[in-house]
User: Fold these one by one.
Assistant:
Number 1:
Amino acid sequence: MFRSAALISFAFFAVAYGQQIGTLTPEVHPPLTWETCTASGCTTVDGSVVVDANWRYLHQVGSTTNCYDGNEWDFSICTSPTVCAAECALDGADYEETYGVTTTGDSLTLGYVTVSEQKNVGSRLYLMAAGSETEYEIFKLVNQEFTFTVDVSNLPCGINGALYFSQMDADGGVARFPTNKAGAQYGTGYCDSQCPQDIKFIDGVANIVDWTPNPQDPNDNSGTGSMGTCCVEMDIWEANSMSTALTAHSCTVTEQTSCTGTDCSAANATTGFCDQAGCDFNPFRLGVTDFYGPGMTVDTTQPFTVVTQFISSNNESTGTLSSINRLYVQNGNIIQNVNTNVAGITATNAISTEFCEQETTAFAETDTFDEKGGLAAMAEAFNTGMVLVMSIWDDTAVNMLWLDSDFPVGGTAPGDARGSCPVTSGDSATTEAESPNSNVIFSNIKFGAIGSTFSA
C-alpha cells in the first residue's frame, strides 16, 4: 500500500490488544467458501475468515481490566513488552455486531462504521486454511491467477476497500515467537511493506516502547511504538468507487521481520527493509481518466470481476515473475486493462520491470521497488507463500488522496493526479459522519491456473 508507516490510520474504537487467549467470548470464524481451479474446472473450498488482533478486546488475564484503554497502555499491567504479552489476553470477536463483518456463502461484506457498545471504524481480516482454526491459507502465486468479484458502489472518496497478499507466517508467528499464544486463530502476525509501527504486538511482545498516540486524530485510539513489522506485500486491489490501484511492494527481508529506526524507513526512502511507495498501476494516474468509475468502461455502480495474473518467465511455478497482468469481467464482457498514456512510459497494461523503471523516471520518483529486489523479490515471496488480507479503512493523515485525488495537494507534476475526488474530500471524521453505512463486498474468490478462473 502507498501509505507510509507514519500515515497508517486504520481507525478502530471498540478494541484493545494482546497475545494470550481470552475466555470471555468464544472465537467463531465466519465461514467463507472459495474455489481452486484447473483447466478441468473449479472445486469449492470451505474456508473462513478471522479479524486482525489489533481490533480485538484485550484484557488482563483472569479479569476484564483493559490492558490498553483509549490510546494508552496500562503500564501498571504492561511493565515490559514481555510481561505485557504474558499478562494480557486477546478475546473472541462478535464479528457482525462489533465490526460490521458478515459472510454468506462465498460473499464477505465489510462495513465501515459499526456502533454497538462502542464505535468501530473499519476492519482487517485474513482467510483461514480450510479445516484449520490455527493457520492462515497460504497462496503460492507464480504462474497462477487470482480472481474475485467486488462491489464498490457504496465506497465514496476517502474510503479504501482493499484485498491484498502479505508474507505473514501461516501460524501467525506462534512457532517463531513462543510468547505469542494466540496465533492465527486470533489474527496475529500482521506485516506489510509499510513496516507498520501501529501493530500492538510484534514478534510475540508488546510494542509499548516509545508508544505515541496518533496525533492526527484525538478520537482515534491508535498510535505507534518503536517497532515495526515488515514483509513483502502485493496489493491486488486498493479502491473505492472513484479510483483503483494495483501495486507491488518488494522487500530485502524474506519473511515477517521486525524493524526499528531507519530499518522501518519511509516512502521513497532508500533506507529500510521494504519498498513502501511500490510500483503501482492506477489507470487515472497513468493518463486514462475515463476507464474506471461510475458509468465508465469498468462501471463501479455495479459489481464486476477482477482477474490478476502472475506471469512466469518459463510458464512454471518455479520461474521468475515476468509480469503482473490485470483484466476485468462485467456484464458478460471481458475488459482488458487499459494501456498507459504517459510520456516516457511505453504503452502497456501490465506491471513489468521495464514499466516500474519507466514509471519512476516519468514521475520523478525513487525506484525503491527495484532497489529492494523488484519482481525477483516478489517471486521469491510468492513461492514461499502469502496470506490473503481483506480490509476497509479510512486515512486520518492524508485523507486517501494518494489513491483518489491530487497528491501532493496542489501538485501538478506527472503522476500527482491519482483520481477525480476533490482535494477537500476524505477527511475521516467527515466521512465517518456522512457515510457510516459504506461497505465493500468481496465474493466469488477463485485461485488457479492461468485462464481457469473466469469466463465471459
Number 2:
Amino acid sequence: MRDQSPRRQNPRQQGARPNRRNVLFGGAVVAAGGLAAACTSNSEKDDPAPAAQAGSLAGDNDKPGTQVTLGFSAPAADHGWIAAIAKSAEAQARKYKDVTFKPVEPTNDINQQISAVESLIQAKVNVLVLLPNDGEQLNQVARKAMDAGIPVVNLDRVFPDKLSYRTWIGGDNYGMGVSAGHYIGRKLKGKGVSDPVIVEIQGIATLPLTQERSKGFADALKSYGYSVTAKQDAKFTVESGNQVAANLLQAHKKIDAMWNHDDDQGVGVLAAIKQSGRKEFFMVGGAGSANAMREIESGGGVLEATVTYPPTMAASAIKLGRLIAHGRGMADLVELRVPQSITLASETVTKDNVDTYLPLGFES
C-alpha cells in the first residue's frame, strides 16, 4: 500500500492491481473523513476570524461556499480497489453544490495520464486530485500543476518531490503488516503455541509497498517471539493467489496462521483453501473488501479478519481538495490550513466489528 513501480504500484500506493481488487478508511477513514468534513462555514459572509476557527462547529465546512472545480485523474479500474477509488471520489463530489467535478478518462498508460493531467492544467481547475499510475513518472506533470498555481492532492502513490503536491493522503502499508501481525501473534500466544507455522502471501514482492507490509508483519510477530515460516508473492491476481495458496498448502502439512496481503487475490486464495479441505489454521486478509468481510461475517471458514487499506481515501481527498480551494483547514485541528500529509490507520476487521466496516468495503 508503495510507490514508484510502474503500473502495479499499490493496491495502495503503487500501481494498479490486476483483476478484481490492495480497506476502508479504517478508523482513519472515519477520522480523516470526519476531520475533512469538520470546520467552518464556506460562505464568505460567515467566515470567522482565523483565531476563532479552532472552536468552530464540526460540519460547518459542508455548507455551500465559493464554486470550485476539482480535477480528478486515476488509473483504469481493472480491479476492485481502483474501481472503488473512482466511485468514492465521484460520489463525494456530488454531495457538494459548490463543487464541479472534472474527471479525465482513467488509463493505465503513463503518457496518456500525463496528457490528461495537462488538459486539466490547461482548463485551470482550482485543485487537482491525482492518483498516479506511477508517482515518479508523473512527478513532473504534478509539479507543473503546482507551478501553475493549482494545488495537487496526491492520492496514495506518492510523488518523490514534495514540491509536486500540496497534500498527500494515503494508506499505511507498514501499518497493515503490524495490524495483521498483532492479530496473529496475540491469538497464537493466547493458545500457547510456541513454534507456529506462519505463512505469508504477498502481492508483488519487488514493490516497496509489499516490502513495507512484510516488514510491519515481521516486526509485529517478533514482539511475540514469532517469525514467518514461508512467504511467496501472488502478483495481486486471483489466479496467482489460487496457485500460490495451493503451493503453500502442499508444502506445509500443518499451518497455524496465514496472512494474505490483498483481498482481491484472496478470492483465489480462499478458493484453494476450500478445495483443499484444510481448516486447521486461521487467516487474516488485507485491504478490506466487502466479499472478505462477508466471509468473516458468515463464519465457519478460515478467514477471521482483514486489515484495512481504504479506497474511501478518495472521498477524503475530494473533501481535502475542496477545503484547500476554499482556503480552509480542519476544525478538529488548531491549525488554519489542511495538513501536508495524512496517513490513514490500518484497522483490524473481525466478526465483532464487521457490521461497522462492511458499508465501507469494496467489491472484489
Number 3:
Amino acid sequence: MEIIKGAGAWAPPSEAADWTEQLRTADLSVGTYCIPAGGTDDQSPHTEDEIYVVTAGRATIVTPDATAAVGPGSVIFVPAGEEHRFTDITEDLALLVVFGPAYGSRTP
C-alpha cells in the first residue's frame, strides 16, 4: 500500500511542466495535470487509456464526438488515441490522471 501525496492537488504549472507523475508501475501511472484559468491545453492524443478526475476548477472537455462541462467530481474516460482537449478553463483546473498501462509505455 502507498499513500500518493499531492496527487490531484492544484499547483501552478512551471515552464518545464504542467504534468507531474506521482506513481508509476508497469500497468498504470498516476499523476496530476494542472492548467490555470484562461490557460491552453496543448496535449496530443495518448497511446494509453486515460481517466481524469477533476479535483478543482471548471472547464469544457472537447473530443471529436462530444463536448461536456466538467467541474470538481467529474470523472472522464478517454480511450487511447482519442483527440481531446480542455477548453474554456474558467477556474484553475487540477486533474488527477490515471493511465493504463503507464504513461508513454505504448509509445514506439
Number 4:
Amino acid sequence: MFGRDIGIDLGTANVLVHIKGQGIVLDEPAVVAIDNNTKQVLAVGEEAFQMVGRTPGNIVAIRPMKDGVIADFDHTEAMLSHFLKKVNAKSMLSKPRILICCPTNITSVEQKAIIEAAEKSGGKNVFIEEEPKVAAIGAGMDIFQPSGNMVIDIGGGTTDIAVLSMGSIVTATSIKTAGDQFDIDILNYIKKEYKLLVGVRTAETVKTEVATVAPNGKEQEPKDLDIRGRDMVSGLPRTITITSVEIYDALMESVNHIVQAAKNVLERTPPELSADIIDRGVFLTGGGALLTGIDELLAEELKVPVLVAEDPMHCVANGTGIMLDNLDKMSNKKVKI
C-alpha cells in the first residue's frame, strides 16, 4: 500500500484525524497521562481523559497543546504517534502525507514545531494550513470566489476569526479566549459564589447543559443543574443547584472578548467584502459554536446574519479532507524546516 493522505485537526481540546477516502476516523481528547516517577506515557486520548482529576499523585493527565500551539513537544509527538498508529496510518513501505492546521497568528517557530512533531510521528511530507480557512471550507463556504466570507472558529484554546476571499485570508485575528476559558469562568464563579471546588469536567457539563449567552438569556425560563464538588470550608462533598442565569453572568466577559475581536476584524475589512458578508452572513464553527445563544448574540452585536455551521465540531477535520484532494496543488506551500 502506498502512503496515504491524512488531515489532522490538532486542537487544544481534541485531535481529529481524517484519512482521504475514509472520512474522520478518529476524534479523541488531546490528553496524555504520564507517570511522574518514570516519565512513561500510560494512556492517550479518551483513556487519558477519563483519568483527569481522578488519578493518584504520581500519575498526571496533561494537555500537551496550549492555545493552539505545542506546549510540550515530546508528549505532542507521543500523542500524534499513538493516534496515527491507532488508525493504521503508517504502512510498512511508505509514510503518509499530512495536512495539519494551526491558528492564524502563530510564529514561524511555533509552525516549525508543529511540522517537526508531525514528521517525527511518522509523516513524510507535512503541509500546514491556517485553521479558519480550513474551517470555512469544511463548513461548505466557497472561499475561492472573489467575494467576502467570514468565519469565526471557536475552539478549545483559541478563537480564530477571518475574512476570506479568492482562497486567501484578507483580515484575521486569533485570540486566546475560547471553550477552555469558558470552563475556567464557570469554575471560578462556582468557587467564588458557593465556596465549592469542582473539576473541569463538571464545568464542561454545566457549559453544555445549562449555559446560555443569548441576548435575552436572563428573561428566558432558567434551566438548572445539580452539581457536586468539595466544600472549601468543611472539606466535605456537597451538592448545589446552578442555573443558566448565573452562568450567563459568569461567561459574559469572555464572550464579549470574542464579540470585540470580531468587530475589529470587520472594521479592517475592505467595504466591498463587508457588503458580501451582510448578504452571506458569518459562519460559526468549532465546539464553541454549540454554546447556546452565541449566534444570536453575535448577530445582534455585529449587525449581520450569523449561522452555526452544520457540524461545527468537525468543520476543520472535514475541511482538511476537502483540501487533501488538492494537496498536489499545495506542494509549493509546504513550509520547509
